[in-house]
Protein backbone atom coordinates (compact mmCIF):
# COMPACT_ATOMS: atom_id res chain seq x y z
CA UNK A 1 0.00 0.00 0.00
CA UNK A 2 2.78 2.39 0.88
CA UNK A 3 4.28 2.15 -2.62
CA UNK A 4 1.08 3.61 -4.10
CA UNK A 5 2.05 7.02 -2.67
CA UNK A 6 -1.55 8.07 -2.06
CA UNK A 7 -1.31 11.83 -1.36
CA UNK A 8 -2.75 13.33 1.81
CA UNK A 9 -6.12 14.86 1.09
CA UNK A 10 -7.20 12.14 -1.36
CA UNK A 11 -10.50 10.87 0.03
CA UNK A 12 -11.68 8.34 -2.56
CA UNK A 13 -9.64 5.59 -4.20
CA UNK A 14 -10.77 2.93 -6.66
CA UNK A 15 -8.54 -0.11 -7.02
CA UNK A 16 -8.34 -1.63 -10.51
CA UNK A 17 -6.54 -4.92 -9.88
CA UNK A 18 -5.74 -8.17 -11.62
CA UNK A 19 -9.38 -9.05 -10.94
CA UNK A 20 -10.29 -6.92 -13.96
CA UNK A 21 -7.55 -8.32 -16.18
CA UNK A 22 -8.55 -11.88 -15.25
CA UNK A 23 -12.26 -11.05 -15.77
CA UNK A 24 -13.07 -12.57 -12.38
CA UNK A 25 -16.39 -10.74 -12.09
CA UNK A 26 -17.64 -13.07 -14.83
CA UNK A 27 -16.29 -16.33 -13.34
CA UNK A 28 -17.93 -18.32 -10.57
CA UNK A 29 -16.12 -19.72 -7.58
CA UNK A 30 -12.61 -18.33 -8.13
CA UNK A 31 -11.31 -17.59 -4.64
CA UNK A 32 -7.93 -16.30 -5.85
CA UNK A 33 -9.22 -12.75 -6.35
CA UNK A 34 -7.24 -9.71 -5.21
CA UNK A 35 -8.49 -7.98 -2.06
CA UNK A 36 -7.31 -6.36 1.14
CA UNK A 37 -5.62 -8.18 3.96
CA UNK A 38 -6.08 -6.95 7.50
CA UNK A 39 -2.63 -5.30 7.39
CA UNK A 40 -3.32 -3.55 4.10
CA UNK A 41 -6.67 -2.24 5.29
CA UNK A 42 -5.13 -1.04 8.56
CA UNK A 43 -2.31 0.74 6.73
CA UNK A 44 -4.82 2.53 4.52
CA UNK A 45 -6.91 3.62 7.51
CA UNK A 46 -3.89 4.75 9.55
CA UNK A 47 -1.90 6.53 6.85
CA UNK A 48 -4.35 8.18 4.47
CA UNK A 49 -7.41 10.43 4.52
CA UNK A 50 -9.47 7.96 2.49
CA UNK A 51 -13.20 7.81 3.18
CA UNK A 52 -14.24 5.66 0.18
CA UNK A 53 -12.55 2.46 -1.01
CA UNK A 54 -13.71 0.85 -4.24
CA UNK A 55 -12.55 -2.41 -5.79
CA UNK A 56 -13.19 -4.44 -8.91
CA UNK A 57 -14.57 -7.55 -7.23
CA UNK A 58 -17.45 -8.60 -5.00
CA UNK A 59 -15.44 -8.05 -1.82
CA UNK A 60 -12.80 -5.53 -0.77
CA UNK A 61 -11.30 -8.26 1.43
CA UNK A 62 -9.18 -11.14 0.16
CA UNK A 63 -10.82 -14.53 0.71
CA UNK A 64 -8.44 -15.52 3.52
CA UNK A 65 -9.10 -12.16 5.27
CA UNK A 66 -12.85 -11.74 4.72
CA UNK A 67 -13.76 -10.94 8.30
CA UNK A 68 -10.59 -9.27 9.59
CA UNK A 69 -10.17 -6.82 6.69
CA UNK A 70 -13.85 -5.82 6.80
CA UNK A 71 -13.64 -5.28 10.57
CA UNK A 72 -10.75 -2.84 10.09
CA UNK A 73 -12.80 -0.77 7.63
CA UNK A 74 -16.03 -0.98 9.62
CA UNK A 75 -14.35 0.30 12.79
CA UNK A 76 -14.22 3.68 11.04
CA UNK A 77 -17.86 4.72 10.71
CA UNK A 78 -17.36 7.14 7.83
CA UNK A 79 -15.50 4.83 5.43
CA UNK A 80 -17.65 3.69 2.52
CA UNK A 81 -16.84 0.42 0.75
CA UNK A 82 -17.81 0.09 -2.90
CA UNK A 83 -17.52 -3.43 -4.30
CA UNK A 84 -18.14 -4.97 -7.70
CA UNK A 85 -16.87 -2.07 -9.82
CA UNK A 86 -16.48 -2.55 -13.57
CA UNK A 87 -13.18 -0.83 -14.32
CA UNK A 88 -12.25 -2.52 -17.61
CA UNK A 89 -11.61 0.64 -19.62
CA UNK A 90 -10.52 2.90 -16.76
CA UNK A 91 -6.91 4.07 -16.81
CA UNK A 92 -5.06 5.21 -13.69
CA UNK A 93 -5.65 8.88 -13.02
CA UNK A 94 -7.66 11.48 -11.20
CA UNK A 95 -11.40 11.48 -11.77
CA UNK A 96 -14.55 12.97 -10.30
CA UNK A 97 -16.57 10.14 -8.75
CA UNK A 98 -20.33 10.17 -8.30
CA UNK A 99 -22.05 7.24 -6.59
CA UNK A 100 -25.82 6.99 -6.83
CA UNK A 101 -27.21 4.53 -4.25
CA UNK A 102 -30.76 3.30 -3.96
CA UNK A 103 -32.46 4.48 -0.78
CA UNK A 104 -33.33 1.26 1.06
CA UNK A 105 -34.90 1.58 4.49
CA UNK A 106 -33.38 -0.67 7.16
CA UNK A 107 -30.54 -1.87 4.94
CA UNK A 108 -26.80 -1.80 5.63
CA UNK A 109 -25.91 -1.57 1.95
CA UNK A 110 -27.33 -0.74 -1.43
CA UNK A 111 -26.71 -1.36 -5.12
CA UNK A 112 -25.23 1.77 -6.66
CA UNK A 113 -24.35 3.23 -10.03
CA UNK A 114 -20.91 4.88 -10.00
CA UNK A 115 -19.96 7.43 -12.61
CA UNK A 116 -16.38 8.54 -13.26
CA UNK A 117 -15.71 11.83 -15.05
CA UNK A 118 -12.17 12.58 -16.26
UniProtKB/TrEMBL annotation:
<dbReference type="GO" id="GO:0019441">
    <property type="term" value="P:L-tryptophan catabolic process to kynurenine"/>
</dbReference>
<comment type="similarity">
    <text>Belongs to the Cyclase 1 superfamily.</text>
</comment>
<dbReference type="InterPro" id="IPR037175">
    <property type="entry name" value="KFase_sf"/>
</dbReference>
<keyword id="KW-0272">Extracellular matrix</keyword>
<protein>
    <recommendedName>
        <fullName>Cyclase family protein</fullName>
    </recommendedName>
</protein>
<dbReference type="Pfam" id="PF04199">
    <property type="entry name" value="Cyclase"/>
</dbReference>
<dbReference type="InterPro" id="IPR007325">
    <property type="entry name" value="KFase/CYL"/>
</dbReference>
<dbReference type="GO" id="GO:0004061">
    <property type="term" value="F:arylformamidase activity"/>
</dbReference>
<keyword id="KW-0964">Secreted</keyword>
Amino acid sequence: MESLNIPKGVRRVLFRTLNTDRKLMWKKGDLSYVGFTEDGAQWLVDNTDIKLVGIDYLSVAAYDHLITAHVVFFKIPNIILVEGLKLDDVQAGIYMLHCLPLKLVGSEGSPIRCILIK
